Amino acid sequence: MNKEKSLNVTSTTSLPPAGVKLCRDWYATSAGQATLARVQSIVSRMSADIFGYYALETGVLAGQHSFLQESRVASQFSLGILPGEQASIVGTPEQLPFALNNLDLVVASHALDCTRSPHQVLREIERVLVPEGHCILIGFNPMSFKGLAQLRYWHNPKARPCQFYSTFRVREWLSVLGFEVCETASAGFCPVFGGDYLFKRARWLDHLGSQYRLMTGNVYILHVQKKVSNMTPLLPSRKVKPLLRPGMIVNPGAGRASRKEPKDVK
């Protein structure tokens, strides 16, 4: 752990409070609760074989719900994004209070959706992860019913409380940072509008999407691993004899090397 910084960091988050509240309110609905249960099952499966000393949960749901209930990582921390939350640490996803190469697993729930600096969030995750460390990203899928709800901000994009990014775009960002994608999953295929009435009559969409592993769910789960390349210098395959040897000089007139003869001593 970072001994230079206290774990009780009281800095304010750059995540818009309106976006955080909107995200948490959706998870309180029937559709959100069903999606959360499915996401929990997927994250538990992805993290079942991940071992290590330290794990961190950050993002909107950190402190509200724990995805690492069945994790084998020894010590687990949750990063609260708003003051007064029931979390072991209070800080920001853009400035994680951990030292370089210190964490074995990071679970970030909607940390990219509700931030103004998604690239900085990913850079911080890459910084604190140990080589071969794992990260599980949870975010809203723009190619879903949840993404369609964002169309009401078509004429005023700045009014969006959250910004959804496709898995293709997030994977490109991660590849630049040296991450390798292990698995991509999707959850929550029911409509997010219409209330409980429409949700109960569209539950068959969840079974259909899960059976055929469709990528049109309201939430995506992306499991990646930090890769560090070890550069090994390659030695020449054969030894090259030097052109010049001690006691030889270059004869410009002849264009070849000749031995330097000692002068006659009279």
From TrEMBL:
Keywords: Methyltransferase, Transferase
Organism: Thiothrix subterranea
Gene Ontology terms for molecular function: S-adenosylmethionine-dependent methyltransferase activity
Protein name in the entry: Class I SAM-dependent methyltransferase
All residue ranges annotated as the Methyltransferase type domain in the record: 88-137
Highest taxon of source: Bacteria
SUPFAM superfamilies in UniProt: S-adenosyl-L-methionine-dependent methyltransferases
UniProt-listed Pfam families: Methyltransf_11
GO biological process: methylation
InterPro entries in the record: Methyltransf_11 (IPR013216), SAM-dependent_MTases_sf (IPR029063)
